[in-house]
Amino acid sequence: DQQVKQNSPSLSVQEGRISILNCDYTNSMFDYFLWYKKYPAEGPTFLISISSIKDKNEDGRFTVFLNKSAKHLSLHIVPSQPGDSAVYFCAASANAGGTSYGKLTFGQGTILTVHP
Amino acid sequence: GAVVSQHPSRVICKSGTSVKIECRSLDFQATTMFWYRQFPKQSLMLMATSNEGSKATYEQGVEKDKFLINHASLTLSTLTVTSAHPEDSSFYICSASPAGLAGGDTQYFGPGTRLTVL
Fold first, then answer.
1. pLDDT at residue B52 above 70?
2. B101 vs A contacts (CB less than 8 Å)
3. Are the Cβ atoms of A43 and B6 closer than 8 angstroms?
4. Shortest CA gap B37–chain A (Å)
5. Quick one: three-class SS letters along chain A?
6. What is the pLDDT of residues B12-31, one digit of tens each?
C-alpha cells in the first residue's frame, strides 16, 4: 500500500526553466510534508517542508504547494540549475501521536535532470 | 548545523557474520532516531524508530531479532545486522530529529551505509 506516490519516475528540464515535481498521498492523517534531494550513495538532504495549515511555502528558488482537497503537493524549482539534478523524494508524516509520531513515509522518488 | 554521520560508509562481509552500523548526531541531541533501508531504484523504507533509553519500535515485517537497534545516548544509535545473508545487502540510512518526538519535525539524514553480504 503506497501511501505517498510520485508517479513520474523522471523529469528532464532545460537550465533556467521551471521544474515541477509532483506528489500525491492517500492518507488523510498526513499533516506535514517534506521534500528531500538525494544523490546516489548519499543520504537525503532536506529541502523544504510545509504544514497542512498552509498551502504554500517558499524558500529561495524552491516553493512547495499543497492542495489538501486533492491530496496533492508539488515542488517548484525556478530557475532550474544543472546542480539541481538529483533524485527528489517527497515524504509525509502524521501528527497522530503514539508510534506514528514523526515517522516519515516516502514516495518512490523522481529523477530530475537539468540540462545546460 | 544538524549534521548526522554514519560509520562505516561501506562494508562487505561474509554470510553469517554480524555487522554493526553507527549513527551519530554531531551537533544536536536526538531523542529519536530512525533507520531506513533503500533498495536500488526504490523508496526509503522505514525499518524502525529508535528511542534513547528504551526499546526500538519496529515496522511491520522487520525482524527485530535480526536487526538489533540500540540507542545508548542522545547522540548515538546503532543498528546491528545479525547473521547477515546476501538478501540483507542494501543501503541503510539513519536519520535524527533535533526536536525528538515532536510530530512533523524535520529529520536530518546520515550519508548512508552500503552493506554487501557475500
1. yes
2. 101-102
3. yes
4. 11
5. CCCEECCCCEEEEECCCCEEEEEEECCCCEEEEEEEEECCCCCCEEEEEEECCCCEEEECCEEEEEECCCCEEEEEECCCCHHHCEEEEEEEEECCCHHHCCCCEECCCEEEEEEC
6. 999 999 999 999 999 888 87
